Amino acid sequence: MTPAERKRAQRMRDNRAAMNAIGDEQNAPLRALLAVLGRVEASEPARLAAQRAWAEIGRRYDFVSVTEQSGAEKTPSRNKG
């Protein structure tokens, strides 16, 4: 394989791992979680996936405490008019 082919194959593996990480953040490798964070501005589902990825990174490295908020579903989003 040429260096370009190896790099292309690595990018494809990374993209596949990032897609598989969505919804399975607890078992995803750190590299995949970081890739999910990089797509935060793509769409609303991507933003939510990035939030879950960030929470998982924080849980793993003990710098973010994740707590459930009982009224969170009723809180209006600042992005909605």
Question: Would you list the SSEs in sequence order as H and E?
Answer: HHH
Q: From the structure provided, what is the oligomeric state, counting identical versus distinct chains?
A: single chain
Mean pLDDT value: 82
Given as residue ranges, the uncertain stretches (5+ residues, pLDDT < 50) are: 72-78
**Counting H and I runs of at least 4 residues, what is the number of helices?**
3
Helicity level: 55-70%
Please report which band the strand proportion falls in: under 5%, 5-15%, 15-25%, 25-35%, 35-45% or over 45%: under 5%
Radius of gyration: 16 Å
Backbone structural class? mainly alpha
Largest β-sheet summary: none
Task: Indicate the overall shape.
Answer: elongated
Q: How many β-strands, per DSSP?
A: 0
Beginning-to-end CA distance, first to last residue: 52 Å
